[in-house]
Queue: 4 jobs
Job 1
Amino acid sequence: MNTTTDNCIDVCNSLLRGEISAVETYTQAIDKFRNEPEVSTLEQIRAEHVESANRLRENVRSMGGVPSNDSGAWGTFSKMVEGAAKLMGSSAALKGLKQGEAYGKNNYEEALRDDDVMPGCKDMIRLELLPRQLRHLEMLEHLERG
């Protein structure tokens, strides 16, 4: 493999770890909101993060890489959101989820600016993953407004 491919794999694996963390975070949030009307929206967002993670796994494999299989350091964010939800309730949990989505959006935008990310990967981010992320932010803002 060449350096560009290796770097692109690294970027995609970092994005994948973020998606895995998002799935973990939404799983915890869904437990918190189990009897609330917000749960269906949170389940939809979680399912889309699963799709994004699977798409990134596929992409890493197609480049000859080995996909990350856990959230790594990203898992810390997941635990922070869970702690905020337990201590401060639903509003704090929604704010935490929104912050996580904004952070993910920034990571996708950063990948689009990275010269080491190959054009096919940028297309996937631009056409699939980033639009999903933006939609999640809108959905969470809608939940926050009630």
Job 2
Amino acid sequence: GRAEYPRMMLAHAKVQYKDNRVARPDWPALKGTMPNGTMPILELKDGKKIGQSQNVMRYLGKVYGYYPKNPLEAAKVDFLVENYNDVYTKFNLVNFAKPEDKEAKIAEVFDKLFPDLMANLAPSIPENGFLFGEKLTIADFWIGGLYTNFMNSPSIGYAPEKWAKTKEDYPVFAAYGERFAKENAEYLSKREGRPF
């Protein structure tokens, strides 16, 4: 889920890290030891834990050069991230919907949420390069991740034919997604299973 974005960014930065994935049966015993009782978290070498996925991304972005130092440029990055995260959870929750609710939730994604998101993002999607030039930012990992984790994922958990069609319906975004995927090809070629 949300841990996929920092994993991809760490891989792009060529940072060695340990990826601890928690099995459902093990979660209750760990929940009380996590910030806010949630995951993902980033645990530093000294044992300090950083919670909340956007917070983790900003922290890693500052450490590894994916987050602008200029406050106005940082606000522009955060604006795009917030736009994406407003709908990300709804995209992902379809995987956990009750069978009787699934079709309605899928229809909401493709009839309302995805088109609205594309309309909001359209002014920011470049015809070349990435969201803020030639260098990736945390916004690219979130928004480019929409392409690699949903639109172009061979193991997406629902409506693969509808996700595939979004590439035809939004060719400028799909071209940006392909550039992002190419930039992260090494990581994407090695990841196991579906990202969600």
Job 3
Amino acid sequence: MDFFNSLVLTFTPLFVAIDALGNVPVVLSLSQDMDQRQKHRMVSIAIMTAALVGLAFLLFGRLVLGLLNIQVYHFAIAGGLILLALAVRDLATGKMVDAPSKEEMTAVVPLGTPITVGPATLTTLIVLTDSYNLWLVLLSFALNMALTWIVFHKSHLIGRFMGQGGLRAVSKVMSLLLAAIGVRVIISGMKGLFPGLL
């Protein structure tokens, strides 16, 4: 039961940060002139890129923080502010990051990173390792990557079923959850730096 609870608590923030359903319109836009084989190849390369970026940051992120003499609490507060800012921007403008020009729309950039694994996901990964075992965070990240791969591959069916309005609504709910997670991470970092303050 403890394993299941921990898995849910590590899987959910990553699921919200990656926002696979909210990114379905991006996948549809990138693949509109592709045949099925080209689309599958684009999605596979994008997920592979996202997984490698996330894994590298997960394994070496703490080492980089140590070299820069940055405590996890500092990173938690900064990361929480980034999560909150990204969520607020998405709620206000409808996008977390600026879309690049058509020529730059490839599987690696922007679909692999920063859309699938960007600042929100990287921040969530490093913050989770402060509270949970590395292998559990790795498992949750792997499950999220597998789920994202399925969602992207089935994006045309999901888009047809939910419609633009449904996809937009899901994306907004995810942004609200991301904002709440950002606030929680900020408070957690403040408690770590100032134990008697909160």
Job 4
Amino acid sequence: SEISVADRLILPGVGAFPAAMRRLNDLGFTDMLHEHTLIKQKLTLGICLGMQLLADRGTEFSECDGLGWIPGHVRPIPRPTPELRLPHIGWNEVNIKEQSGLFADIDGDTSYYFVHSFQFIASNSDYVTATTCYGSSVTAAVARENIYGTQFHPEKSQRVGLSVLDNFARL
């Protein structure tokens, strides 16, 4: 009942892609989330695994359908050298493509806190609003219409992360 009256939703995420999708489906949340986000066009922010679930498909443990709201797929971060550890845990600089939406009035090259082993590969680079470098370019944030996502954890990213959440609240 709270989802039906909310003007914004945050889809958090810690865990594995298939288990999260199974849980959303088992609890009956998938239909409610679709109605909120796609039919009513209300704002939704996916954080970390929550952002990955916005994709069409994920490959963690097995192929699994995602919510399909931002065209793309989720796959492991490549490890070009053994020194590149997974999961990627820690602070990384984020390169913001545009100073609007979640990143309004935030410096273009700011560090955020990450914890992940998988990356969102958008089908259209226009959906990628920020990147980070971890062995190669990795999607740090996506956006499409009323749907936003951050691979980093804004709630763990100190003042700049709180600015991202504040911007989401003001959209």
